Inverse folding.
């Protein structure tokens, strides 16, 4: 069963600040969904290959060529904070 | 309202060629219609008038010179607001991208521009395409054009509503678990999800990469088929894009379907089905019988697990895909953070809405140490079984039919507080995404309240032509498509 | 400490990140040259903009296979990519595309000084960007940080060794050999200072004779061979001290500070690490056919170990062979000279002697001088033919490096060709003998060591051009 502690741990991994109410709500809601999901365990899948892709092909590669389609200004224009062409972030703790 | 807006894309193309109307006039008429009614509908997050008019002018220039027009040139279109168009705000209906201006075009956007299809605006959606009712937009809820108190379905609610309300003639949506087919059904139009890999995902803001697929909305099957032709094809920028030639679906729309084996999905015709929906689908099956098709009953034993599988795989992928929204390079950043960790946690807490957070939490949990095998790997194995069910089914049937949704559009707010009930809305649509097969929803009648009912048709991978053919024959044997929402 | 050291056995494994020398990034078509202006080698893909997708660079795969073969690895028929997830400003997508449980290379080894070091695996992944910390020298105490994503997406091959090394000397030798290999096969610059090759060391200690490894610490931030050795030595002492005092070594990541010469715990950074690996849905798996592997194997250049062996077969000492192989530019130059038919011993004397000295003095690489292999080969042939003396050769090699002229041209211009004509030399010898009667008398009186004086005088008269052997013989003959 998923607990508030699990929810807090997961929120930390996902870098989400949660209020106390959210923690309680998510504990309940995730619990409900996981309980529903657990119905999968009725089915024996021990010999089944996990499926990662809906289509089946391999070896998609490109040639080693340098191509630029955008200019730098366009790419930096959405930056919340910029300094001399660098992205700026608060001190790392 | 300019009556031409009620016409199909095919009819509008004819009108353009015959110079009954110019592309600029048509585009302006559509923009005017949006300005008139979108306050009530809330289908658009933003308009891209300049791009639209510029494109329309190019169309008129070609017409003036007597040149041939590319397919769908000059036909007003809306882009779901999770697709990049240079210079437009691309928000995914999220506060975290509220002010993000695209520096690049999605591949589908480029294809539309190449074909001179005017893009009028960016359609509202559930935040990051996560939802079944379009109530999860951070900006405003989309309303159903048939009844403004009801939801349009999600997540491509704005794309569906705008076409149903004749604001635009065509639109694009993205479908991860039914996000095109469900709103198409709720809004009484055609919505189609192609085979995974048929349309490039480059430039589509990812929700769940292994399930997402872009597809067309239109008021007729033929228009949808033509729009898919315009946007499909191999893209070297998308490693999951199929390297196969573009097909000309319109050629086979009228093929005889005598002897076509139509499989009825048993599990979707029984419990929980609204009586009016059941009646409509049974009538549709009868219709196929009359058209000479052979009806067979099909069972998909693992279908009942598809929602569980989906909510593990889709949330796991989304928890990863949404990690890039961290306030560093673009998008929203919290105004008050003293250090990096605070910047991350507050930016994401303030920038994402509740459903997005809920799914990030679930997906992170499913991938976290100690749970991967029990949830993620198990779901991937189950996905293989669901896919196998379809392989078996398609040995007995050429297409599969079911209701697109067990019910018609519900009232706004009816399921907002019960995520699981909302998730169950997708029971009929989700398995096609798991198996990567194409599917569409075509209008199949109305319930007692006059709300549209959708028939879902599924086909094996890459059998889009068969799918459109079967849907077109059904559409033309009825006249549901002729009835438009009165707004 | 020295005595305590005898009680313990040291266990070291290295994780080496080698930047692959492709033109473009591993999943994006941006350039990846070192030292460009910040955030100029970027695209929507590298910045992790919403909607972008990765496409694998084929050359990175080829280089991965080539390296694997050079490290005696198996190349599995199938491999795939996975996402490794964590938040950091230098990681634009919030995950690194890497290979988790199906890497491109497995089960290899390299031999260092008679010992075989196992290589567990090598996998392809993308590099992160770089951070500049403002208001302080490093991260600690900085008021904010700046992000440059030029390096983000540069292809890396992470090469993971078995815990087979038992001393810092072995670790260094392994690292040096690995560097030689990646440089000789042309996949990586191997520049530790610029970071094109980076190393993390896993270090633990256990009582001698024990079979169970101790708890390991992972040491990061070692930027040179000597730093690697110093860091390992420091860490061994630190761990011994803890154990001797009855404590326990904690599993953690520690940062080497080469200024203060100590490792520091990165405590707190690790507690939430749960990378949540899962298969990358945006990339299809790789199936590497045996034909593909063989095609690459056929292009494998000579590896450093084979080169060493070959040089020793040519008569070079083990020392000389090692020194040349360590300096790839010289070795490749040497090989070119040999290909042109030059006698190995003379060539190696030039390369190890005058050429090496000049390069060291001028801080140049061989390819930055004007000396070509053809010119050196010609010089050697002039000496062997007796056209010039070895000494003349040693003089003009410097001008050849500076000016790029052919040896024969310098010899002609300056009239340096050796005089082997007995008649001509005899004349000069006569002249020298006649001019120095006192010395002749002394020589004849038994001071035979004066022969050197006469040789010198003859050489002075001929500006060094006389064939020394002939001079010696003639002097002995005339002086009796």
């Amino acid at each position: 069963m998923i607990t508030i502690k699990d929810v807090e741990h997961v929120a930390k991994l996902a870098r989400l600040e949660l209020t106390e109410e959210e923690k309680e709500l998510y504990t309940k809601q995730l619990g409900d969904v996981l309980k529903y999901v657990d119905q999968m365990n009725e089915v024996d899948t021990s010999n089944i290959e996990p499926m990662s892709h809906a289509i089946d092909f391999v070896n998609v590669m490109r040639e080693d060529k340098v191509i630029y389609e955008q200019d730098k200004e366009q790419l930096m224009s959405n930056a919340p904070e910029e300094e001399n062409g660098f992205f700026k972030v608060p001190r790392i703790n | 309202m300019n009556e031409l807006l009620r016409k199909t894309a095919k009819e509008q193309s004819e009108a353009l060629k015959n110079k009954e109307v110019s592309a600029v006039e048509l585009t302006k008429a559509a923009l005017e219609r949006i300005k008139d009614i979108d306050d009530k509908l809330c289908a658009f997050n933003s308009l891209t008038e300049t791009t639209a008019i510029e494109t329309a002018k190019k169309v008129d220039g070609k017409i003036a010179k007597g040149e041939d027009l590319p397919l769908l040139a000059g036909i007003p279109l809306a882009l779901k607001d999770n697709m990049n168009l240079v210079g437009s705000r691309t928000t995914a209906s999220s506060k975290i991208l509220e002010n993000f201006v695209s520096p690049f075009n999605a591949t589908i956007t480029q294809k539309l521009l190449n074909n001179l299809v005017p893009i009028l605006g960016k359609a509202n959606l559930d935040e990051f395409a996560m939802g079944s009712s379009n109530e999860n937009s951070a900006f405003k809820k989309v309303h159903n054009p048939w009844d403004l108190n009801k939801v349009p379905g999600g997540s491509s609610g704005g794309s569906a509503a705008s076409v149903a309300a004749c604001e635009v003639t065509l639109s694009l949506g993205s479908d991860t678990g039914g996000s095109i087919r469900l709103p198409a059904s709720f809004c009484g139009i055609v919505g189609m999800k192609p085979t995974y890999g048929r349309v490039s995902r480059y430039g589509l803001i990812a929700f769940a990469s292994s399930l997402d697929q872009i597809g067309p909305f239109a008021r007729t099957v033929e228009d949808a088929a033509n729009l898919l032709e315009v946007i499909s094809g191999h893209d070297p920028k998308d490693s999951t894009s199929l390297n196969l030639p573009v097909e000309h679906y319109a050629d086979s729309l009228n093929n005889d379907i005598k002897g076509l084996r139509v499989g009825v999905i048993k599990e979707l015709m029984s419990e929980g089905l609204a009586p009016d929906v059941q009646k409509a689908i049974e009538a549709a099956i009868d219709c196929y019988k009359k058209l000479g098709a052979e009806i067979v009953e099909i069972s998909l034993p693992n279908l009942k697990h598809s929602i569980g599988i989906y909510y593990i795989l889709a949330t796991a992928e989304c928890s990863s895909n949404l990690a890039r929204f961290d306030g560093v390079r673009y998008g929203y950043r919290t105004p008050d953070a003293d250090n990096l960790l605070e910047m991350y946690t507050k930016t994401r807490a303030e920038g994402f809405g509740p459903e997005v957070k809920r799914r990030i939490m679930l997906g992170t949990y499913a991938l976290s140490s100690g749970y991967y095998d029990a949830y993620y790997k198990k779901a991937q194995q189950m996905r293989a079984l669901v896919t196998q069910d379809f392989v078996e089914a398609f040995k007995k049937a050429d297409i599969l039919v079911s209701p697109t949704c067990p019910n018609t559009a519900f009232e706004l707010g009816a399921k907002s507080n019960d995520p699981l009930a909302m998730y169950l809305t997708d029971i009929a649509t989700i398995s096609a995404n798991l198996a990567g097969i194409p599917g569409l929803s075509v209008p199949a009648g109305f319930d007692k309240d006059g709300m549209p009912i959708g028939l879902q048709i599924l086909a094996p991978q890459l059998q889009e032509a068969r799918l459109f053919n079967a849907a077109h024959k059904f559409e033309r044997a009825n006249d549901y498509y002729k009835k438009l929402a009165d707004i | 400490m020295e005595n305590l050291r005898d009680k313990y056995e040291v266990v070291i494994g290295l994780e080496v990140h080698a930047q692959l020398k492709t033109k473009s990034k591993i999943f994006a078509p941006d350039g990846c040259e070192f030292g460009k202006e910040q955030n100029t080698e970027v695209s929507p893909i590298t910045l992790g903009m919403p909607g972008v997708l990765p496409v694998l660079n084929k050359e990175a795969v080829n280089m991965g296979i080539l390296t694997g073969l050079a490290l005696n690895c198996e190349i599995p028929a199938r491999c795939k990519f996975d996402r490794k997830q964590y938040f950091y400003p230098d990681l634009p997508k919030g995950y690194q595309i890497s290979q988790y449980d199906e890497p491109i290379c497995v089960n290899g080894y390299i031999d260092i000084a008679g010992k075989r070091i196992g290589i567990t695996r090598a996998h392809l992944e993308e590099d992160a960007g770089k951070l500049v910390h403002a208001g302080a020298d490093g991260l600690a105490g900085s008021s904010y940080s700046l992000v440059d994503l030029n390096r983000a997406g540069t292809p890396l091959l992470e090469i993971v060794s078995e815990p087979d090394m038992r001393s810092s000397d072995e670790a260094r030798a392994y690292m040096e050999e690995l560097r030689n290999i990646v440089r000789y096969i042309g996949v990586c610059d191997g520049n530790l200072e610029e970071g094109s090759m980076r190393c993390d060391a896993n270090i633990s200690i256990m009582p001698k004779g024990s079979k169970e490894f101790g708890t390991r610490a992972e040491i990061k931030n070692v930027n040179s061979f000597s730093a690697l050795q110093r860091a390992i030595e420091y860490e061994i002492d630190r761990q011994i001290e803890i154990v001797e005092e009855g404590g326990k070594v904690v599993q953690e990541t520690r940062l080497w500070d080469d200024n203060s010469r100590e490792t520091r715990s990165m405590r707190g950074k690790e507690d939430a690490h749960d990378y949540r690996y899962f298969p990358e849905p945006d990339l299809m798996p790789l199936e590497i056919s045996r034909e593909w592997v063989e095609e690459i194997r056929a292009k494998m250049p000579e590896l450093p170990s084979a080169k060493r062996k070959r040089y020793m077969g040519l008569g070079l000492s083990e020392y000389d062979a090692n020194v040349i192989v360590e300096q790839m530019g010289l070795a490749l130059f040497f090989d070119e000279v040999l290909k042109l038919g030059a006698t190995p011993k003379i060539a190696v004397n030039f390369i190890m002697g005058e050429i090496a000295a000049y390069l060291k003095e001028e801080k140049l690489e061989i390819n930055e001088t004007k000396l070509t292999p053809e010119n050196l080969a010609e010089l050697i042939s002039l000496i062997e033919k007796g056209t010039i003396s070895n000494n003349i050769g040693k003089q003009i090699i410097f001008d050849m490096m500076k000016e790029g002229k052919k040896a024969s041209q310098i010899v002609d211009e300056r009239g340096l060709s050796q005089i082997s004509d007995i008649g001509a030399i005899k004349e000069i010898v006569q002249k020298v003998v006649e001019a120095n009667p006192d010395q002749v008398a002394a020589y004849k009186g038994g001071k035979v060591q004066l022969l050197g004086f006469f040789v010198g005088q003859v050489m002075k008269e001929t500006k060094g051009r006389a064939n020394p052997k002939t001079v010696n013989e003639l002097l002995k003959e005339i002086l009796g």
